[in-house]
Amino acid sequence: MSEQEEADWIPPGADLSRPSAARIYDYLLGGAHNLAADRAVAQRLEAIQPQVATVARRNRAFLRRAVRFMLGQGVRQFLDLGSGIPTVGNVHEVAQEVDPGARVVYVDYEPVAVAHSRMLLKDNPNAAALEADVTDTAAVLTSEPVRTLLDLTEPVGLLAITIGHYLPPDVRPVFAAYRDAVTSGSYLAITHLTNDFAVLSDPRVAETMRSTQDRIFPRTRDEVLALFDGFELVEPGLTTSANWHPDRLAAVVDPEEDGLYAGVGFKP
Ligand SMILES: C[S@@+](CC[C@H](N)C(=O)[O-])C[C@H]1O[C@@H](n2cnc3c(N)ncnc32)[C@H](O)[C@@H]1O
Q1: Is residue 44 part of a domain?
Q2: From the CA of 219, how far away is ligand 1's center (Å)?
Q3: CATH number of the domain that 164 lies in?
């Protein structure tokens, strides 16, 4: 029996013919929901850039800090776009630790990510996973989980954490649709791959990802800032993941090593 047939976490109908960003990222974070082909890509990325797993961990830590920040501002509902395979410190865990009534909708188009999220959330009435392409904004925004769990007349925390660079060049209308759907007082958190910093700018990174379901489109600082259109960046503005509201004792990380742009915006 092949590895794919054996693994009971693989939902029927999942396209496993090509590696996926969700499963590569899971491997880099030390998870178990990945296949040999995903691991091979992850290892190729690590051979090009040994810091790639560190970048992924810092990204995850940023996500948790951004969610806590939004909770501190009174946000009690989150739409997590490109949420990935659940790992430690998922959004609903961070949010419901602060307020058990906090609501979360996870969105991903990768069936393993969605199936695993649903399994984890089966006894959680305040969180759900939606299988959808985030660029189909109308489908996401009118979906059953969004309609039943999120109240769009109240502030929402939009999470676009390492998702923008998987979306093709003309991505601004996608971000604009989510912005327009949420009320003032909402927040948007973004992390985004760029070639502006040394750590992930090797062209072999993008080349390697071409063999997967998820090609990447790194963006410049100005292009990432444009995704915040209609939001006011909170302090310290657009920085890199480890340097956004670092934990009290964390050392500043050189952006050249940190690699991902990171910021949080407020919709006035
Ligand atoms: C690197 S993972 C990030 C997971 C999580 N947001 C984080 O930063 O920890 C990127 C995720 O985006 C998902 N993804 C990429 N393009 C997508 C799309 N168009 N619609 C929905 N999900 C997408 C992938 O399946 C993957 O799970």
Answers
A1: no
A2: 16
A3: 3.40.50.150
